[in-house]
Each structure stands twice: as C-alpha cells, then as structure tokens.
C-alpha cells in the first residue's frame, strides 16, 4: 500500500502526507479536527457577525458567539477567535455524514490557506475514507 493511502496520525506531524491536488477527494477531513482560527473579517464572511456589529467591542461579540456554540475561545490580545468543535473534535461546520464543509464558500482564511499554512506547511493529515 502506498504511503498516500495510509492514514496519518494527526498528532504526529512526521506521519503527515505531502499535499497534492486531489488528496482531499477521499479524505476524512482530518484537517477539520484541528483548531481553526478566525478573524473578525472571517466571521463577517461566515455570516455569524454582521458588518455593523463588527464595529463594536470584540469581547461582547465573543461572549455571544461562545454562548451560541460558534466559537470555543477568543484571544483578545491577537483578536483571534477559535471555532467551536464537537465532542469528537470535528469543526461545528463539518457535515458528519459527507465529511465536507457546510460553509465552504464562506470558510475562514485559516481553512482557505490550509495546507499552505498550518502545523506543517505543505503537508496534511490525510486519513482515507472508509
């Protein structure tokens, strides 16, 4: 079996696979179990904060989003929101059945730029479906 068809251990970067086009087509979306950071512009694009609210202080917005289960953490110093994950580690925006992002066209820049950026740039924690 080729290395690209064996699953990576998301906790061990040395098991990650060099990214290539098409690798995502049969992956379990393991990248969607990594913490995903979002900035205010991402939250506006995602439709969870409107442009007018984005002008308000960030702490009350973070409290609202945390209460709604959209974020799990807010880093005030860096103005970064960490998207919430389910108990199994999946991003709340990952469809459990299809393993596809439910907000793909509106996803945060962190997700748009993966795997160019991330824990091991140019590599992904590929885990095949099945």
Structure notes:
With 130 residues, the chain is of the alpha+beta class. It has a domain at 1-34 and 107-130. The chain has helices at 40-46, 58-67, 109-112, and strands at residues 17-18, 37-38, 71-75, 80-83, 123-124. It is elongated.
Q: Report Rg.
A: 16 Å
Which runs of at least 5 residues are low in confidence (pLDDT < 50)?
A: none
Q: What percentage of residues falls in helices of 4 or more residues?
A: 10-25%
The tally of helices reads: 3
**What percent strand?**
5-15%
Q: What structural category do the secondary elements indicate?
A: alpha+beta
The general outline is elongated
Main beta-sheet annotation: 3 strands, antiparallel
Q: Which sequence of SSEs, written as H and E, runs from N to C?
A: EEHHEEHE
Terminal CA distance reads 15 Å
Strand order of the largest sheet: 2-4-3
Key traits:
130 residues; alpha+beta; two-stranded antiparallel sheet; 3 helices; 16% helix; elongated
Summarize the structure in short:
The protein has a domain at 1-34 and 107-130.
Layout: helices, strands, pairs:
Elements: E1 17-18, E2 37-38, H1 40-46, H2 58-67, E3 71-75, E4 80-83, H3 109-112, E5 123-124
Antiparallel strand pairs: 1-5, 2-4, 3-4
